[in-house]
């Protein structure tokens, strides 16, 4: 049988598609269900708003730092590629391994599980069908991403616009019809059991997580050296503005004590109070769409890491996983493999717990990537940068300390989970060396500077089919 003709990823995602993916991948259910948790830990509405602002600022500094690296390495794989080129193949592999085997599938499975609960409540399905509903929904979104990336990108734009409707309704109601003072309300009854401002910031950082996933599509974005930094920067800024406005609106609409007592039902109470039972239903639809959009972004981006690793022959069945469909130009087998892992997690494990365990490891790699900005500048002092991190070196230093804060907080609060996350990563070490030896790949001692590539040609190496 003749080998397949040269096939490459389609580089046809523009700024609006990239922006929608950034916003849609970040905004899931967090802004709707974490209002009470952040307020409880912060202790007052003023400190709650400051916690959301601090989390957003830390995320922006992280995004601006990564944007400089992304502008130099506009390739499919994102963080995996950055780690490989800055620190060497083994570190790149381990960052990718953690994302495709545990973190990515766990995040998708968690979204699916929560979405199934909402769908069951909305339509009155028995809870025993939740696992089937979660898997079915994930498969439907996954099928969409087996076609050209234009369909996934278009779906991201539609869901992002749809999810902004209930967000706008909450903001408008709170700002113009709320009767509470948004600032200065305290929660005296929970002061003794409340956490602290640092824990509140930590809760918001988890709600901001997902901003870096657009970098996994670096090989499919038009003029990525320019558009990728723009999408990351403006996307995070938009989410920060949305989170602050929603939180302010919530504090205006309901007294702080009631927000504490209602917990994750706070937003539902506001919608029902403002718009009646129909309003509550409409908000539920908005949250469902929000989660589906977030899920779509993750299903679209995480398989690209697997594809990029398979192209380098670093995974079992690399030849199959690196296959691109000749018509859709998408990594269909990597997408299917990721969906299978997700389904297994939904059936046999607690996906929420697994995703929590991997937060520590993700932030360890974030810190290394942020430090990488300094290393790249030192190695290539004269290199032209399409995008440079503003206020360097202050911005990456803030990003580094923000990530270290998450790491230290995780160690202090969940040491067994931290040790478990190390095990997940360690399992990848023998896999890496086995595949490296199998394919005769020589480990480079130092992956120096980013490889300059033409925007229209990067990541267009051929992927051949099976004989």
Automatic annotation (TrEMBL):
Region annotation (Disordered) ranges: 445-467
Taxonomy, superkingdom: Bacteria
GO CC term, one of those recorded: membrane
Transmembrane segments: 12-33, 49-70, 91-117, 129-147, 154-177, 197-219, 231-251, 328-348, 354-376, 388-409, 415-434
Acidic residues bias (residue ranges): 449-458
Subcellular compartments: Membrane
GO-annotated molecular function: L-amino acid transmembrane transporter activity
A Pfam family annotated for this UniProt entry: AA_permease_2
Membrane topology: Multi-pass membrane protein
InterPro entries: AA/rel_permease1, AminoAcid_Transporter
Keywords noted in UniProt: Membrane, Transmembrane, Transmembrane helix
PANTHER family linked: AMINO ACID TRANSPORTER, SOBREMESA, ISOFORM B
Protein name: Putative serine/threonine exchanger SteT
Organism: Lentilactobacillus parafarraginis F0439
